[in-house]
Amino acid sequence: MKKYTYEARDQATNKIVKSTIQADSESSAARLLSKQGFVPLKFSEQLGDGSLLSRITGRITTKDKVVFTRQLATLIGAGLPLSQSLHTVIEQTNNKQLQSVVQEIATSVEGGKSLSDSFAKHPKVFSEVFISLISAGELSGTLDEALQRVAAQQEKDAAIVSKIRGALTYPIIVLVVIFGVMAFMMFTVVPQVEKLYLDLDKPLPLLTQIMVSTANFMVSYWWVVIIVLAAAIYFFIQYLGTENGIRFKDTFKLKVPIFGNMFQKLYMARLSRTSQTLLGTGVSMLDTLKITSRAINNTLIEDSIVRAADKVQGGKALSVALTPETIIAPLVPQMIKIGEQSGRIDEMLGKVAQIYEDELDEQIRTISTAIEPVLMVVLAVVAGSMVGAILFPIYSLVNGINI
Fold this sequence. Notes:
- The structure is a single chain.
- By secondary structure, this protein is mainly alpha-helical.
- It is 75% helix and 6% strand.
- It has 17 helices and 3 strands.
- The protein has helices at residues 26-35, 51-57, 62-77, 82-92, 96-110, 115-120, 128-140, 143-199, 206-220, 222-240, 243-255, 259-281, 285-295, 299-313, 318-322, 331-342, 345-399, and strands spanning 2-10, 16-23, 38-45.
- A 3-stranded antiparallel β-sheet has the order 2-1-3.
- A hairpin with a 5-residue loop joins strand 1 (2-10) and strand 2.
- Helix 7 runs antiparallel to helix 8 (143-199).
- The longest helix is centred in the middle third of the chain and has 57 residues, at 143-199.
- The radius of gyration is 30 Å and the shape is extended.
């Protein structure tokens, strides 16, 4: 898709306008302008306007997408044509990269493509759930409602992920502080203790000798340490990108102490909320399960949903199909069964999602409160051990005691 600067005459006002447009060629750009009521006069292709840097370094956040989606829903709900709504949103969007993406979507729509197909050209920006909801909204004639559902779905998912990241941030900061204290003591204080013992011709205590040897190795072979660490991190990241690595990561998330239960509640909330949104917009059950399985972002749960979908395709009820899957919390098929009996599965899924979102909020607060004293104890033990390894030898010299 090329970007052109153009001059054209507005047929309604007879004024000359200058702006930019994206199209595959000048002739395509001319056709698009003609459809908008302009008479093209001049085109010049833009080659280096900084958009490449924006594409490389720019980032479209969930907040950007939520604001864009709600604005588009409001404009369409107010009765504005789709093309005009997209161009209006472009003018109101501050994120340059998102502006570029929406401009390409508007060009695609004006070229005759559906909105869902136009969004589908940008899979790195818009998820499969997003695109499926838009497609269902187009088919049912409720595009504005579908867009509002998409925005609500994005907001809830982003809020949950943000809370989990917040709960994990504090432990990481404390661990960094612990390693910082250890490095400071080993590279500044421990060498002074070693020098003191050498001046007095005394043997170092075992713990202090271990610390001195470690510090000397780090100082002498720091480049080896950096290479080994960098290689280990690189190969570990590469491993996590393989099929076995992804399964290891997904299994670890569900099994890790303290946080495993929290991740399971996150996945159950995501499963229920996504399914509710898709079903409520008119997406079929099988398509809902297929899309939801990939939206969960955990291969173990994805496998369970796929197995359940096969059983549903074979004629079983969803609640029956999910019950044998031990990785799916029992509450999910139980509430789905109630929904199947009452004919309100999407409503029951919404209640399940709310239950797990509330439980997740409470668990995050509990973990955040409980983990602080635990980490403080760990920090005290590590720092105390370091101080002891330094002070005990000094006391032994002063008192004439060989520890």
